[in-house]
Design goal:
Layout (H helix, E strand, L loop, with lengths): L1 H13 L2 H4 L3 E8 L6 E2 L1 H13 L1 E14 L2 E12 L5 E13 L2 E8 L2 H7 L5
Parallel strand pairs: 1-6
Antiparallel strand pairs: 1-2, 3-4, 4-5, 5-6
């Protein structure tokens, strides 16, 4: 099942919002670094729309997906140009996705890989 979890996370990360939510449990806990944790499809949709609204030429690239059983640690590269500032950004986040019964039930985001691995129960 864990290899399947990796593919579910990959699909979630590369899909448009409405399609991506098909991979997420309706009561998903969404915990991005730049916002307070929220719950449910509506909260995920709102968070993603707020995030994408501030960027021009926004691109999200899943670089590495580490299979950890019921968790997947995703190294995600984010590139874009600030819509207002015009500043180019190229950075990485480390997301820990928790899955149950083929659905994403939680996403916790970190700015350091070591923190994500620790949260997933593995040391670097």
């Amino acid at each position: 099942m864990s290899r399947e979890n990796v593919e579910i996370v990959r699909s979630f990360l590369t899909a448009e919002v409405d399609e991506a939510l098909g991979y997420a449990h309706p009561d998903i806990v969404w915990n991005p670094t730049e916002e307070i944790a929220a719950q449910g499809h509506g909260a995920v949709r709102a968070s993603l729309e707020r995030w994408k609204k501030v960027w021009d030429d926004y691109e999200l690239i899943p670089e590495e997906l580490d299979d950890m059983g019921d968790r997947v640690v995703a190294t995600v590269r984010v590139r874009g140009r600030g819509r207002v500032s015009g500043i180019e950004v190229d950075g990485r986040f480390y997301d820990v996705y928790t899955l149950r019964d083929g659905m994403i039930v939680r996403m916790d985001q970190f700015t350091e890989r070591s923190e994500a691995l620790e949260a997933a129960g593995k040391e670097e």
